[in-house]
Amino acid sequence: PRLANQIAAGEVVERPASVAKEVLENSLDAGATRIDIDIEAGGSRLIRIRDNGVGIGSDDMPLALARHATSKIASLEDLERVGSLGFRGEALASIGSVSRLTLTSNNREEGSEGCSALTEGREMDVQLRPAPHPRGTTVEVRDLFFNTPARRKFLRTEKTEFNHLEEVVKRLALSRFGVGFSLRHNGRVIHNLKGAETTAEQQRRVAAICGPAFMEQAIHIDSDRSDMRLWGWVALPTFSRSQADLQYFFVNGRVIRDKLVAHAVKQAYRDVLYHGRHPAFVLYLELDPAQVDVNVHPGKHEVRFRDSRAVHQCIFSTLHRALADVRP
Ligand code: ADP
Ligand code: MG
């Protein structure tokens, strides 16, 4: 089973950013409202993620680390309408097979003690010992790829790896305004985002993540149709940026990259006046979960819409109207 885990790890665990993504998604699935992330050396030395979610009972600790063990789906039908971010039950097992992983958790209220399990690469004997922990979970991943030197060799510089990891945190922080996030790298605070409820607080978070210039030159849109809602922020043509693309699109709280979506956005921009410019946006599409299939790709960045024409039309017309309104 160890070898199988290491092979699976190749799919799930490409670099520190992919570890962070899996662990953070587990925290969100556990209903955390506060997540603290500590990174050392771009994540190759340490990725520590602490949440205040439901926690894991001591009986379930070995299961959480076992391959194909998930508490999130019980049947094939569940898979159809899975609302959680993870459901394949192999992330922790895979990460544990290529690192020194400590899982510490407590699923009970204050005053109770939690427990901790340590796995180290191939020696996956999960030893449980009592450990103090408030309700919630801490996953500590040390020395990623210490036992797979070939993969370790493919890691880029500390800065590059951290940038990838930070991007993962940004996306998730944009996808869950209600959750507080902190991110530290080598002891330095990079982000400290309090839970955002009001529009003003949400705008503050978007500004913190996308830069104040984006927020200053973005318009807020919100189109409520009976069957779907598109809301968020799109930049005006006065906003120009030197760095990479600033394009975030979320469907029912999940980050997605989708050709249909990209096409609809681009067409709306081009139609109004934004010739030759890359649109910049943070957009949220909310629709009946039965109308989207999120299990198309294990990377989970792709979706399939039941009625893709309606989605295209909603994005195009909403953006077109908003942009035409502010045309100078
Ligand atoms: P999956 O997310 O696909 O179920 P994982 O390997 O990522 O698989 O996690 C295995 C199981 O461990 C989860 O189904 C969940 O029960 C438990 N688990 C992992 N992380 C957490 C967490 N932060 N809080 C509560 N439970 C967790
Ligand atoms: Mg998971």
UniProtKB/TrEMBL annotation:
Protein origin, superkingdom: Bacteria
Residues in coiled coil: none
Any GO BP: mismatch repair
Gene Ontology molecular functions: ATP binding; ATP hydrolysis activity; ATP-dependent DNA damage sensor activity; mismatched DNA binding
GO CC annotations on file: mismatch repair complex
DNA mismatch repair protein S5 domain mapped to chain residues: 206-324
Statement: the UniProt record of this protein carries the keyword Endoplasmic reticulum: no
Keywords: DNA damage, DNA repair
Record keyword DNA damage present: yes
Entry's family note: Belongs to the DNA mismatch repair MutL/HexB family.
Protein function: This protein is involved in the repair of mismatches in DNA. It is required for dam-dependent methyl-directed DNA mismatch repair. May act as a 'molecular matchmaker', a protein that promotes the formation of a stable complex between two or more DNA-binding proteins in an ATP-dependent manner without itself being part of a final effector complex.
The protein's name: DNA mismatch repair protein MutL
Species the sequence originates in: Kineobactrum sediminis
Name of the gene encoding the protein in the UniProt record: mutL
